[in-house]
Every structure is written in C-alpha cells, then in structure tokens.
Amino acid sequence: QVQLVESGGGLVQAGGSLRLSCAASGRTYNYYAMGWFRRPPGKEREFVAVISWSGGNTDYADSVKGRFTISRDNAKNTVYLQMNSLKPEDTAVYYCAAGVGGGLSRRYQEYDYWGQGTQVTVSS
How confident is the model over 96-111, as a mean pLDDT? Predict the structure, then answer.
C-alpha cells in the first residue's frame, strides 16, 4: 500500500502561482510513476502531468504545457506540481496518483493509488 497526501491548494488570482505537493508513505514509492490529475467543477477527471520514477521523463496535457512543471524528490518521497500563469479554467480538485507499472500514462485507470485531493480555485 502507498498513502498519498496532497497539500498546497488554495485560492489565487488569475496569473498567479501555486505549488502543490504530494507526500507518499508506505511501500517504496521510488519505482512508481507519479501523476497529477484534476476534476474541474461538473466535469470528468482529466490528466494534467506525469513523471517517471527516475524523474527523467515527463508528459503534460496540452492545456498546461509551458505553465505547469512536475518534479519529484525521491529522498523526500514527494512529488510537486508548480503551477504558473494560472487561469480560471484551472480551477479544480487536484489529485496525485501512483502507478505501479511505472509508465508515463495519461489514463487514470492505470494508476493504483490516489490521494484525497486538494482544491485549487483561480479567480478572474
């Protein structure tokens, strides 16, 4: 089992920045790919970003590419999502997830462990 706890969400004005953190505990997390997903109000869960277990490979949704950066510190068992130039359409509950397979997947079905989510609200 892996436990994931997100933090860092909040209310920010458009154009502002936030950094989300996801702390992992339990089984060795270093071999998992780590992803960020979000669920906007009234919409389905959607992929945001993913990082390989080594941190050497990343993938981003087109809607956040160039504005968001995913990173991880395996010594701290933590993955981060730096969000810059935030837009009102980024408003959502953000979830981190761990994928046992380790691949860079955009499909939420391929992730095995999930955090409880953190709310991000961007005002216009």
Answer: 88
Tens-place pLDDT, residues 45-96 = 999 999 998 889 999 999 999 999 999 998 999 999 999 999 999 999 999 9
**Distance between CA 31 and CA 46 in Å, rounded?**
23
Q: How far is CA 96 from the centre of its chain?
A: 4
Q: Which residues pair with 83 in a beta bridge?
A: 18, 68
Which of 14, 7, 93 has its CA nearest to residue 46?
A: 93
Instruction: Output the six-digit token pair for 46.
Output: 């959607």
Q: Which residue has the tokens 């089984």?
A: 27
CA atoms within 13 A on the CB side of 32: 27
User: Can you give the chain as a three-state secondary structure string?
Assistant: CEEEEEECCEEEECCCCEEEEEEEEECCCCCCEEEEEEECCCCCCEEEEEECCCCCCEEECCCCCCCEEEEEECCCCEEEEEECCCCHHHCEEEEEEEECCCCCCCCHHHCCEECCCEEEEEEC
Rounded mean pLDDT of the chain? 94
